[in-house]
Amino acid sequence: MRDCYERCAALVVSLGLVLALLLAGALAANAESYEEALAKFAADSYNETDAAVAAVAASGNPLAAQVIEALQDGRLLFSAGDKKIYMRKPPAGLLDAATGQPVSGAEPAGLSPVRVNNRVRRAIDAALGSLTLLSADPVKRLEAAKAVFKSKDASVLATLDTAINKEGEARIKKALEEARAAILAGKRDAREADRLAAIAILRDRGDQDARSVLAGVPSDQPANIQKALADAITTIDDRLALWSVAQNFWYGISLGSVLLLAAIGLAITFGVMGVINMAHGEMVMLGAYTTFVVQELIRTMVPGLFDYSLAIAIPLAFLVAALVGMAIERGVIRFLYGRPLETLLATWGISLILQQAVRTSFGPTNREVGAPNFMSGAFELGGLTITWNRLWIIVFAGIIFAGLLAVLRYTELGLQMRAVTQNRRMASSMAINTGKIDAFTFALGSGIAGLAGVALSQIDNVSPNLGQSYIIDSFLVVVFGGVGNLWGTLVGAMSLGVANKFLEPYAGAVLGKIVLLVVVILFIQKRPRGLFALKGRAVEA
Amino acid sequence: MEVRAILFAIASALTRAIAFAVFGCWTSASRKSVLPVFKELNNILFYPVQYEGEESERNVFYTGAAPNQQAIPAVDYLAKDEKVQRWVLAGTDYVYPRTTNKILEAYLKSKGVKPEDIMINYTPFGHSDWQTIVADIKKFGSAGKKTAVVSTINGDANVPFYKELGNQGISAKDIPVVAFSVGEEELAGIDTKPLIGHLAAWNYFQSIKDPKNDEFIKKWKAFTKNDKRVTNDPMEAHVIGFDMWVKAVEKVKSTDPDKVIDALPGIEAPNLTGGISKMLPNHHITKPVLIGEIKGDGQFDVVWKTSGLVPGDAWSKELDGSKDLIGDWVDKKCGNYNTKTSKCGS
To answer: In angstroms, what separates the C-alpha of A431 from chain B's closest C-alpha?
Structure first.
């Protein structure tokens, strides 16, 4: 026994020594391999680049993070001739990637950027994640934690533990712990207690990413783990199912606000004035194109103002659409009051003319309208993903609605407008210039359609057909809500939006739309004047 | 209404014997509408757009991709290189996406993909509110398996679709979208920075480095007097088709459609990606298949290509109804020859 003890101890010690030597050797080999790894970038092959990213990250060379960041930004260059790798340093300058020293003299000829594809991009994220876990910059640490959560790279576990112990910010610490949990949940050789704790952390995170990690663990785990995994997935699913109701409601409000924007101008021209204006969609389109022109001008002349481009476009779009609307009213529609069929045909003709005019001057293809920074991306609210552009569009629709109500109620113009639409002859005998009021009312409705165009340019195509896709929906909303009633338009738009979004998951987008149309037709049969019918003398007028 | 106008214009042009051949049509619906006219007046149509297959007509030459020259190689690429195991087949609700998705579904199932790992979704033309569907895709992708979207979404609906993807933060690194109807021209209307890495499968990209392609791009920009105009796959198909027609006419020294139709199979013409395409007896051509990733400037970076040229199948080998059919206008003089029963006409 004792014999063995000594011998075994000797064996263990020597084994340990060998291991240590091997490890040191491996480290040395790694350190050497930085240049070898770097050389792989020059092969111009995704497989080699993929391997090079991992090897550079593992090399421990202080330049590793810099090189991989350069690769990510497309600043890593290779020369096909001598297979050397360079980093471009913004704004100007070239570094030798092997040494980190600036290249002196003229720039070597024939440099081309190292190309990346999705696989390489994932490798870059994973590598940067492991390299920047201990970065001094909290933003980078948070990003690193998220990258590790996705890559689930078990080799960074030790670094991760150090990072968790050092971390002072609660938010980042949580992200780091979740990243650790994502690794441990699927790690077969981890302790069972650790894995169960990891699964609990993921369950508490409770979003789709966490579910994805849990569901991705292969199903041949020990019974305990298997059960914990299944329970956690069920818990997350239950939570998400609850949130999905809220999600549908939010989507419905968002769709409703788009419908409201498209329809509210029509609620004035059709609802209040009674003009069947088929060119209404084109006013929306003109608003969108105004936004495009404004952005183009800003891009070429004052790029710094880009984030304000929409704010600048709003009054201009209103003016452009209002002027065109006024021209249409004075030029055509005023001769056709009381003849709905002819108005319909004439305005339809105008809509075709406007479309073709835009097609001729701007071309038939879609135009690019950029999103300012504050309208890009999304944020999480509980289990909801809320995109900024939709949120702002809802706010915008609300402001326009309130503004329009205020104009109609509290301004001189609004008062005269209501007077003319309620009793034209009486208004006329009260010295109201009814022709002028007609023109202004139509201009107001058109201008508001132009405002809608500014908002829609953020979510839809800016093409000559933009208006056509909204004209049917707009009429539907106004008729459903009740002609001549702005509140009816609001309720109509919101209920159609929400109903659509609750139907869509079950019936699909195509069938959902059909079902809704049938329901509205049946409803109109029952209540021909819509949800909020006007009462009193105006009805007969 | 538009179709009738096209019909009228084409019919009158043909009867006046001005047109020796027509290069045109966009979407299968328009091709199927003009087909009776071409048959009746016995003339030639070159159709340049990728389509769903399941057709081989004597008067039509299909220079766009058949499903086996676009959809199936794209799915193979995703399964092999991106290790995709879960599939969303999203399309606009009309014949091309429905047939293509039917073929893809059969193909995926034959490769051992389980039905619960395939999600199929259709939307109306010009669909603009993608919130629900993008959220569904995200949910479908959270099952722990690598997920990809195969998109046959048509035309204008693509812009709001990609915008919503970008805004909801679905990046190509997580859930790549491979599209069959999105090329350089479609991307010209979008800010492509959030779309970097999403894919498209075509037989041509403007970014291909080839002397013939460089020359064509230069000529196109000079012709449109616009340095920013882009080229795309159907344009290349017409370049090849026209070249083939000229060669066939030179061969038989006549523009008589009957003679040209018989002369076309076997004619070879260089494509713009460095290969030589050949007209096959089924009136489809051989093409390389390329997979490109969207770049920040609206162009594509080719990440994969077939080693050689792929011959177009008129009839899909994946569908029960058509796997025994071939089109052969040389020996059999038949567009739907059944190799099992050795009879013409399914």
So the answer is: 47
